[in-house]
Amino acid sequence: MQKKIRGATLGDERTDVRTDVRADEPRLKQVVAAVMVRGSRVLICQRTEQQAFALQWEFPGGKVEVGEEKPAALVRELHEELGISATAGREIATVRHRYAEGLGVELHFFLVREFEGEIENRIFREVRWAERKELDAESFLEADRDVVRRIRSGELG
CB 3.0–4.6 Å: which of 8, 90, 111, 137 could bond 145 by disulfide? Predict the structure, then answer.
């Protein structure tokens, strides 16, 4: 059963943590994601047909390596995926999620407003700037959907 816990805090920011993971289950995979904002637009990326969860949208980012700090992991992933040198801002949300396939993730979303270089699509089917109001949460990975809804409403980012 999945339950939602409201009111976890991070700095001055309020964040939601979704969890259906018990304490005795294996450790969750640590993942970082960038909420890259330019005015009213947010950068979104579509997975390829060959990737797990094919053609679903997500925010750029990826796995945190052993011994790596989360902001450093995000900077590394953005360079690998998009060819940019980014500055990780504050963490704006954390989501714990277990997919039906059994994969468990703890996803840390960071605000990214500053980066250098031109965005290159190195691994995705599509990368684009989307208006917040046009974001369709159902087209995103399950673990991202609540955050997408909050970005769309203006609550985050």
Answer: 137
Half-sphere exposure of 32 (CA within 13 A, CB side): 24
- The answer to whether 111 touches 90, Cβ cutoff 8 Å, is yes
Q: Give the predicted TM-score (pTM) of the model.
A: 0.84
- pLDDT tens string for the chain (157 positions)? 333 323 233 334 434 444 444 444 568 999 999 999 999 999 999 999 999 999 999 999 999 999 999 999 999 999 999 999 999 999 999 999 998 878 899 999 999 999 999 999 999 999 999 999 999 999 999 999 999 999 999 999 8
**CA–CA separation, 123 vs 63, rounded Å?**
15
CB atoms within 10 A of CB 136: 11
The residue count of the chain comes to: 157
The SS3 of residue 138 is: helix
Helix (H) or strand (E) holding 80, with range, is helix 70-82
Instruction: State which H helix or E strand residue 153 sits in.
Output: helix 145-153
Domains identified in the chain and CATH numbers: 34-153 (3.90.79.10)
